């Protein structure tokens, strides 16, 4: 990132993004996720515990002196390729990896998908949570857990280490951002959804790290407000995304595009790595496009988050990111 560019030149952009209209233009069709074309070598490695392609199964891994769990989804035809992308999806506070799989539709993507489980956090209730939040489990390093998970899966499965992508909702979206900042050499792109950017998720980024990011957030989210929450030290979402753009050395002004009903998409240009933001007018603390409960508030059906995420991240490869200029 250029050392002459101030990080906090975001006031005008923040105001523009917060002043979103109540609705956008008529919806258009979406593109179905697809596998990269071309001949592929078959996978010759055995699957974990004999798991069959096209299935989901729960697995365990030792990390930081703890037994951690995750749900692993193998795509149909897994055995026919040796270079599958990996998507890691983190749940929100009080949820589980299995619940994210249930509402996100990420398991329909042409990728191996891992849904990790957090540990029990602090505060009221017996709820799983992630590092970086004020209610995070004490003494748990979820960044190290994620790196251990990368090592486990990439060491024993037919994966392309240049195409590892992160997503997550709420507290999990904040962790996805934190992991991308801490491990930019291993993360090809990150896609937080309704993310909780607590101070603990905004610290310790690797110097000069540029990671492609697409952020999705509803303007009607009352759990993690789009305009921020000073009492919880949560930034306005436009401010947070503008910081990503500054870190990736983008031009200051984003290009807004009203692509579908209720949706405004912002793209930055001149970046070292792509930065986009999808604002859902009136959207709640939810996974856009979900057919089942994923959180409180309005769930748009104008877009499917899993398709939007895949359209963005599948263009990104470590070392050869397709940036917008």
Going across the major beta sheet, what is the strand order? Answer: 1-2-4-3-7-8-9-12-11-10
Instruction: Describe the main β-sheet briefly.
Output: 10 strands, mixed
- Class from helix and strand fractions: alpha/beta
Shape: globular
Low-confidence stretches: 1-16, 20-32, 34-38, 321-325
Number of strands: 12
Quote the distance from N terminus to C terminus. 15 Å
Number of helices: 6
The Rg value, from CA coordinates, equals 19 Å
Mean pLDDT over the residues: 88
**Which sequence of SSEs, written as H and E, runs from N to C?**
HEEEHEEEHEHEEHEEEH
Question: What proportion strand?
Answer: 15-25%
Helical coverage, percent range: 10-25%
SSE layout and pairing:
Elements: H1 11-18, E1 56-63, E2 66-73, E3 84-90, H2 97-104, E4 112-116, E5 119-120, E6 128-129, H3 142-156, E7 159-169, H4 171-182, E8 189-193, E9 213-218, H5 237-247, E10 255-260, E11 263-267, E12 275-280, H6 305-313
Parallel strand pairs: 3-4, 3-7, 7-8, 8-9, 9-12
Antiparallel strand pairs: 1-2, 2-4, 5-6, 10-11, 11-12
Helix pairs in contact: 1-5
Structure description:
The chain is of the alpha/beta class and 325 residues long. It is 19% helix and 22% strand. The strands form two sheets. The protein has a ten-stranded mixed sheet, with helices on both faces. The protein has a two-stranded antiparallel ribbon with strand order 5-6. β10 and β11 form a beta hairpin. The longest helix has 15 residues, at 142-156. The chain is globular, with a radius of gyration of 19 Å. The two termini are 15 Å apart. The model is unreliable at 1-16, 20-32, 34-38 and 321-325 (pLDDT under 50).
């Amino acid at each position: 990132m250029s050392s002459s560019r101030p990080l906090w030149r975001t006031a005008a952009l923040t105001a523009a993004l917060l002043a979103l209209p109540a609705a956008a233009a008529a919806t258009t069709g979406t593109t179905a996720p697809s596998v990269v074309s071309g001949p592929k070598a078959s996978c010759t490695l055995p699957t974990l515990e004999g798991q069959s392609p096209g299935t989901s199964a729960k697995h365990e891994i030792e990390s930081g002196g703890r037994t951690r769990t995750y749900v692993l989804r193998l795509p149909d035809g897994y055995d026919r390729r040796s270079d599958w992308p990996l998507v890691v999806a983190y749940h929100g506070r009080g949820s589980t990896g299995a619940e994210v799989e249930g509402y996100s539709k990420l398991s329909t993507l042409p990728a191996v998908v891992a849904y990790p489980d957090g540990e029990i956090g602090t505060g009221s209730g017996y709820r799983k949570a992630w590092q970086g939040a004020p209610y995070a489990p004490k003494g748990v390093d979820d960044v190290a857990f994620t790196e251990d998970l990368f090592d486990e899966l990439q060491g024993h499965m037919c994966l392309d280490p240049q195409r590892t992508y992160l997503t997550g909702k709420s507290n999990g979206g904040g962790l996805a951002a934190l992991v991308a900042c801490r491990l930019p050499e291993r993360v090809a792109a990150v896609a937080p959804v309704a993310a909780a950017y607590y101070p603990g998720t905004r610290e310790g980024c690797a110097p000069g790290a540029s990671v492609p990011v697409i952020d999705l957030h509803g303007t009607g989210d009352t759990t993690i407000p789009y305009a921020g929450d000073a009492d919880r030290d949560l930034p306005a979402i436009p401010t947070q995304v503008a910081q990503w753009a500054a870190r990736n050395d983008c031009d200051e002004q984003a290009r807004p595009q009203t692509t579908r009903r209720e949706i405004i998409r912002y793209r930055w240009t001149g970046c070292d790595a792509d930065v986009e933001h999808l604002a859902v007018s009136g959207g709640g603390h939810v996974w856009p496009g979900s057919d089942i409960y994923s959180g409180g508030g309005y769930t748009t059906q104008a877009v499917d988050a899993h398709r939007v995420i895949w359209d963005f991240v599948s263009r990104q490869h470590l070392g050869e990111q397709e940036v917008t200029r």
